[in-house]
Each structure stands twice: as structure tokens, then as C-alpha cells.
Write a structure and sequence with these properties.
Keywords: Cytoplasm, GTP-binding, Hydrolase, Magnesium, Metal-binding, Nucleotide-binding, Potassium, tRNA processing. One of its GO terms (molecular function) is GTP binding. It is an enzyme of class 3 (hydrolase). It is found in: Cytoplasm. The protein is an alpha/beta fold. The chain has three domains: 106 residues, Probable tRNA modification gtpase trme, domain 1 (Gyrase A, domain 2, 2-Layer Sandwich), CATH 3.30.1360; 143 residues, Four Helix Bundle (Hemerythrin (Met), subunit A) (Up-down Bundle); 175 residues, Rossmann fold, CATH 3.40.50. The protein contains 16 helices and 13 strands. The strands form two sheets. The chain has a seven-stranded mixed β-sheet. A six-stranded mixed β-sheet has the order 9-10-8-11-12-13, with helices on both faces. Helix 4 packs antiparallel against helix 5. The relative contact order is 0.12.
Length: 476
């Protein structure tokens, strides 16, 4: 399979000015040349890494399929470190499919999802962390997320992981040299010599893990459900936070009958805002579905904005919604370390319609939700909206923009591998403290070394590689 020549459309589906078909493999040039008709009838391979003008023709019918620019790129200076041909044509889906069909008819195989990047990894151009960063780069929704993905693609994360891995390997080498070569009189390392070395590796890994929660938020975003009874201004709040009229707003209660989800940029974090139908008893089967989806949105949220009408006193329905959220496991204000917990996800209480005469008292809400942040907002005048955004950012301890030199763990897979590495290093440290034979220390150190190798792919299994690259788009 690795020796096959593969091809795929490398630009997104849809209509555009330019589209590209990519071919990679040992026979890429041989497969592409018969399809290219150039002015002057040239048939030799064009210079590497230069665009060549011509037309793509169907060799069986001589029909001209498209006017193109083609780049022939010789290995190893390519994305896959194989010979690569990129055919740049017009960006219509039909014309690209026709070009791809004649390429495949030459004996080229259709690429699997992520196979170009998989070959870049297998051929040593990228390590596994850098390969995963490719998809993060494509899917970035904010400038901060884009910066983190680019840092990972440039190898900053890999460098720090490798430094920790080399530190662990140094300890292993000292231990195993004394075990394997006793006749050479290699001195047995003493616990006082090994403790600082293990501690150094542990601190390097823990410094990466310290930013894992924040990194996850920059990559995946913060799910924020806007919850409340009907007609308190939930849809207006969504529109205000998005700075656009996304949800329909009317004075009629129950206008929103389904969840509406959009993404806003909150200080570099993708904020997934979910406007919900008012949680209220109803006999209408359509409204019942909307209420069920509102409850599901709340259950899956990282943060809930619980909206009240500040121009009205608390109602029985407000209390019912409050009781439901508390049953779901929401609490008062919580830090980022609790965001993934099912027990203390934060609630922000929003007293909306602050431009109207106020009848709702802040004290009432504070008694209902001790410790929760309470803010007054007006979606009509904009009052309190900046404070609301700042409160959400502070709740997740992400109020500062990622600096250019920050390296944050954004992948749950990386976080898990690093967590296992720290557990094994702590176990090795404990074995030293208990004066156990150095063989026991070495076993845990090797396990830590293997776990760190999973991040960069040096110890990744074939099943893990298949799972990672299957999530890539075809053509990348």
C-alpha cells in the first residue's frame, strides 16, 4: 500500500476559482505526463517545483477537460517526501471529478482519508504530533487556536516532549548499564543521584499538562448554553454576543422552538453559543421536542448562561428551570479545573432587560445560586455585554491571550499519554524511596518513555495511526 501511487482532490467541495488534484508516489510523473498537453508538444518532465501551463486531456478520447497549471515536484522536497504532481484547474466539482477520473484510469489508487499526511509521517517529514497539527490548523476558528496549531506544526510541542523523553532515557541508561555490565564494574547509581533526574523529567511533563485544559478550550471551544423560561431575551442575548441577527426575535413567547448554535470568538476561545427553547411545560408536541433539546444542550454544556427577565419578579417557571439545572450538576462559580467535571460546572446568572424598570433583585438570585456571578445586561443598549464576556473568560481562567511562545496541550490524546508518563515517573520515584531493586525503577521509567513516544509517534501502534488519520479529510 505504501508503494502505491495515490491521488485525490485536495481542495474543499463546492465551487471556487481554483481546485487542485494531488498525485503522490513513485509513478506520479509517469501517470500525469500522458494527461498534460503543453504548447509546442513538449513531453519531457518539466523542471521541479515550477508551474507548467497546459491542458488536461482524456488520453482515450483526446477530449480537453480543463486549462491548467501543473507542478511536478521531485522527492524528497515535497509534502510526502515522494514525487508529487499537483494539477491546478478551475474549481468546479464536475471538472475536478473528471480530472481525477482520468488520473485514476492511469492506474493510480484513490487516496484514503489523511493518507498524504500519513505518508509524510511514515517518511519522516513530520512526527505524529505535527501531523495532527495539520488538521488543527485547517479547523482553527480563532487566531489563538491558529497560533497554537502552527506552533505544534513547527515542532515546539515535539521538542519539549523529546527533551523530557531524553531525560528519562538518561536515567534508564544509568540504571541498566549497572545491571547489564556488572563485570565492567559500572558503579550502581544511588537514589540521591537518580531523584533529581526523575524530578527534572517530571517537572517538564507537568509544565505541559498544566495548560492542557486551557489548550483544549482554544482548540475545541467552550459549549455555552443560554437557558431560561420563554421570553426572557435568550435569542436577543445570542444575537448580541454574536454581533449579528442570527436568531429570530419577537415579543411573542416561544418564538424559539429548537436549539440554534453559532460560534463567537471570546478572547481567542471559540465560544459555542447554544440558544435554546424556553424550558416550560407544554402540550404542543413540537414545543416538547424543543424543550427536550434545550435540556440536552444544558446537560452537554461547559457553562450555562441562566437568563432572567429583570423587569419581572421571579416566577414559578424560573424556579423550575433553576431546580432542573441543579439536578443536572451545575453549581456556582467554578475554575477551569472543574470544567470537565459533571459536578461543578459554572452558571452565570444574567438579569436581562436592564433598560427597563427593574423588579428583580440581585439578592434573590444570589440566594438561589450562592457563589454564582450575577450580571445585568441589556441587549437593546449593550449594557453589561462586555462584562458578561469577561466573566465567562474568567470562569475558565482563560482571560489572557495566548502568547507567541506559549506551548499548550490541545489534544486529549496527548494529555492522556503525558498523564500516564507522570504516573509512571511518580511510581519510579516511589520505588526509589522504598529502596526497591533498580529493576522496578527501570520498569516504570521505560513505561514513561513509551508513553511519551506515543505523542510524537515513535511508539505509536498501527491501530492508533489508523484511528488518527481516518479523521482527516480525503486529499490531506
Amino acid at each position: 500500500m505504501q508503494n502505491d501511487t495515490i491521488a485525490a482532490i485536495a481542495t474543499p467541495p463546492g465551487v471556487g476559482g481554483i481546485g487542485m488534484v494531488r498525485i503522490s508516489g513513485t509513478d506520479a510523473f509517469e501517470m500525469a505526463l500522458p494527461l498534460l498537453r503543453r504548447p509546442g508538444g513538449h513531453s519531457d518532465v518539466p523542471p521541479s517545483h515550477q508551474l507548467t501551463y497546459g491542458h488536461i486531456v482524456d488520453p482515450t478520447t483526446q477530449e480537453v477537460l480543463d486549462e491548467v497549471l501543473v507542478a511536478f515536484m521531485r522527492a524528497p522536497h515535497t509534502y510526502t517526501r515522494e514525487d508529487v504532481v499537483e494539477i491546478q484547474g478551475h474549481g468546479g466539482p464536475l471538472v475536478l471529478q473528471r480530472i481525477l477520473r482520468v488520473v485514476l484510469a492511469q492506474g493510480v489508487r484513490m487516496a484514503n482519508p489523511g493518507e498524504f499526511t500519513l505518508r509524510a509521517f511514515l517518511n519522516g517529514r513530520l512526527d505524529l504530533a505535527q501531523a495532527e497539527a495539520v488538521m488543527d490548523l485547517i479547523g482553527s476558528q480563532t487566531e489563538a487556536g491558529l497560533r497554537l496549531a502552527m506552533q505544534q506544526l513547527q515542532g515546539k510541542l515535539s521538542t519539549q516532549v523529546q527533551e523530557a523523553r531524553h531525560a528519562v532515557l538518561g536515567v534508564i541508561a544509568r540504571i541498566e548499564a549497572s545491571i547489564d555490565f556488572p563485570e565492567e564494574e559500572v558503579p550502581i547509581p544511588q537514589p540521591d543521584e537518580l531523584r533529581p533526574l526523575i524530578t527534572e523529567a517530571l517537572q517538564q511533563i507537568e509544565s505541559l499538562l498544566a495548560g492542557a485544559q486551557q489548550g483544549r478550550l482554544y482548540r475545541q471551544g467552550l459549549r455555552t448554553a443560554i437557558i431560561g423560561r420563554p421570553n426572557v431575551g435568550k435569542s436577543s442575548l445570542l444575537n448580541a454576543l454574536l454581533r449579528s441577527e442570527r436568531a429570530i426575535v419577537t415579543p411573542i413567547a416561544g418564538t424559539t422552538r429548537d436549539t440554534v448554535e453559532e460560534v463567537a470568538n471570546l478572547r481567542g476561545i471559540p465560544l459555542h453559543l447554544i440558544d435554546t427553547a424556553g424550558i416550560t411545560p407544554t402540550a404542543d408536541p413540537v414545543e416538547q421536542i424543543g424543550v427536550q433539546r434545550s435540556r440536552a444542550a444544558a446537560e452537554s454544556a461547559d457553562v450555562v448562561l441562566f437568563v432572567f427577565d429583570g423587569a419581572e419578579t421571579l416566577t414559578e417557571m424560573d424556579q423550575r428551570v433553576s431546580d432542573e439545572l441543579q439536578v443536572m450538576g451545575f453549581g456556582g462559580q467554578a475554575g477551569s479545573e472543574n470544567l470537565s467535571s459533571k459536578h461543578k460546572r459554572p452558571v452565570v446568572l444574567v438579569m436581562n432587560k436592564a433598560d427597563c424598570p427593574q423588579r428583580l433583585e440581585i439578592d434573590e438570585l444570589q440566594r438561589m445560586w450562592p457563589g454564582a456571578a450575577v450580571l445585568k445586561t441589556s441587549t437593546l443598549t449593550g449594557q453589561g455585554l462586555l462584562e458578561l464576556e469577561a466573566t465567562i473568560a474568567d470562569l475558565v481562567q482563560a482571560g489572557k491571550i495566548v502568547q507567541s511562545d506559549s506551548v499548550l496541550i490541545t489534544s486529549a490524546r496527548h494529555q492522556e499519554a503525558l498523564r500516564r508518563a507522570t504516573e509512571h515517573l511518580r511510581a519510579a520515584f516511589d520505588s526509589l524511596e522504598q529502596a526497591l531493586p533498580l529493576d522496578f525503577v527501570s520498569i516504570d521509567l521505560r513505561a514513561a518513555y513509551e508513553a511519551l513516544g506515543e505523542v510524537t509517534g515513535e511508539t505509536a501502534s498501527e491501530d492508533l495511526l489508523d484511528r488518527i488519520f481516518s479523521e482527516f479529510c480525503i486529499g490531506k
